[in-house]
# Entry
Amino acid sequence: MSMILRKPIDKVPEPTLRRLPWYLSSVKLMKGEGEKYVSSTQISKLTNIDAAQIAKDLSYVNISGRTRVGYDVGALIDALERFLGFTSSHQAYLFGVGSLGGALLQDSGLNHYGLKIVGAFDINAAIIGKVIGSVPVYHVNRLEALMKQTNVRIGILTVPITSAQKVTDRMVASGIRAIWNFTPFRIHVPEGIVVQNTSIYAHLALMFNRLNDNQKLL
# Structure
């Protein structure tokens, strides 16, 4: 007996979208170990997420699970990758080629998840014209001209916080419609612009805080 798991009209909750990549990584690990089928309980053991929550999260994905057998590993991987958009190629520009921006330009792993950085922008004359990780670096004044020649709609923001809003405004004005913000500054954008904030400093502060709390209990 098969059980169809799908909620086509529901908006996927953000916590669910954050957990789905964890499930994908876990299932890929099990595939590497030779597993053919996987259950929510097995994924739970690897992710430390309740099996009932996993089943609920997977109900948003176009995948069928067999009672007392679980999900076909290959089919689940394919379904998750399609659902998360990892099978499509999304081009992006990066703004701010500092230490973090430079590292992202050389991160080939992003390509495996559907994101390809095709250009970077900065104002530092020492790096303009260089190619970092196969990505050319342009002066930011070339942004508008290049946007007219491409279909790039995603911007990655790794500039200093002092220029974060100014660069954001320019990105939006030029046609960028989604911004992956790595700065610890909460940028302001018009309605309809997608922003994903990923501050490593915020997570660092959270880790330090929890570490201090745990030490107090010792």
Summary: Residues 1-9 have pLDDT under 50 and may be disordered.
